[in-house]
């Protein structure tokens, strides 16, 4: 199986839909892609399946990749049986955690209706999620001064206020924010501040 490079490649494998959550912390993922059938998402949400879904329970207790048929956990609400009626007959669960101090894990669940996923396909999906997980890792190259300025931006302080509080020129603050935006790939200081907030760095 060749490397999966894009969501289009994933869609070719997971013909009936998939869901990927990246860097899930205490509650919410840093980023998510929900390409599952809308009718299934509505049914799943309405019946609050997440707490009872054996796939999700496996994901939070393990790392690696497994076919849904290999998950040996109770399914009292028959989530997997009901998924089949929406075309999600065969699936794969993927979970990765790299021991990061934020406790963030990434996972994916992928489905098709025609056959079980082959081992090489399962491995390729696992590698794809792991790659995305690492790509969303918090940057380690932000300086204390840059983080300090971003924290003040997040608090709603203006450039002049930040410069006064830090005892530096407005130009110095602008440079710190510019450096931080470059490192984060952010368009604006507000976006950069939001990103480091999501990473738990401020």
Automatic annotation (TrEMBL):
<dbReference type="InterPro" id="IPR005143">
    <property type="entry name" value="TF_LuxR_autoind-bd_dom"/>
</dbReference>
<dbReference type="Pfam" id="PF03472">
    <property type="entry name" value="Autoind_bind"/>
</dbReference>
<keyword id="KW-0238">DNA-binding</keyword>
<dbReference type="InterPro" id="IPR036693">
    <property type="entry name" value="TF_LuxR_autoind-bd_dom_sf"/>
</dbReference>
<dbReference type="InterPro" id="IPR016032">
    <property type="entry name" value="Sig_transdc_resp-reg_C-effctor"/>
</dbReference>
<protein>
    <submittedName>
        <fullName>LuxR family transcriptional regulator</fullName>
    </submittedName>
</protein>
<feature type="domain" description="HTH luxR-type">
    <location>
        <begin position="139"/>
        <end position="196"/>
    </location>
</feature>
<dbReference type="InterPro" id="IPR000792">
    <property type="entry name" value="Tscrpt_reg_LuxR_C"/>
</dbReference>
<dbReference type="Pfam" id="PF00196">
    <property type="entry name" value="GerE"/>
</dbReference>
<keyword id="KW-0805">Transcription regulation</keyword>
<dbReference type="InterPro" id="IPR036388">
    <property type="entry name" value="WH-like_DNA-bd_sf"/>
</dbReference>
<keyword id="KW-0804">Transcription</keyword>
């Amino acid at each position: 199986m060749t490397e999966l490079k894009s969501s289009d490649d994933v869609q070719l494998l997971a013909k009936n839909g998939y869901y990927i959550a990246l860097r899930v912390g205490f509650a919410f993922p840093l980023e998510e892609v929900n390409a599952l059938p809308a009718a299934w998402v509505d049914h799943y949400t309405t019946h609050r399946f997440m707490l009872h879904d054996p796939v999700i329970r496996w994901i939070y207790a393990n790392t690696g990749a497994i076919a849904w048929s290999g998950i040996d956990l109770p399914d009292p609400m028959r989530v997997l049986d009901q998924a089949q009626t929406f075309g999600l007959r065969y699936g794969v669960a993927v979970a990765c955690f790299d021991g990061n101090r934020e406790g963030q894990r990434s996972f994916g669940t992928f489905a098709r209706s025609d056959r079980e996923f082959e081992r090489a396909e399962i491995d390729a999906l696992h590698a794809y999620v792991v790659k995305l997980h690492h790509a969303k890792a918090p940057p380690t190259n932000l300086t204390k001064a840059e983080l300090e300025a971003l924290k003040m931006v997040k608090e709603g302080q203006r450039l002049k206020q930040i410069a006064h509080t830090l005892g530096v020129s407005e130009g110095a603050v602008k440079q710190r924010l510019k450096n931080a935006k470059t490192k984060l790939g952010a368009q604006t200081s507000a976006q950069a501040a939001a990103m480091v907030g999501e990473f738990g760095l401020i």
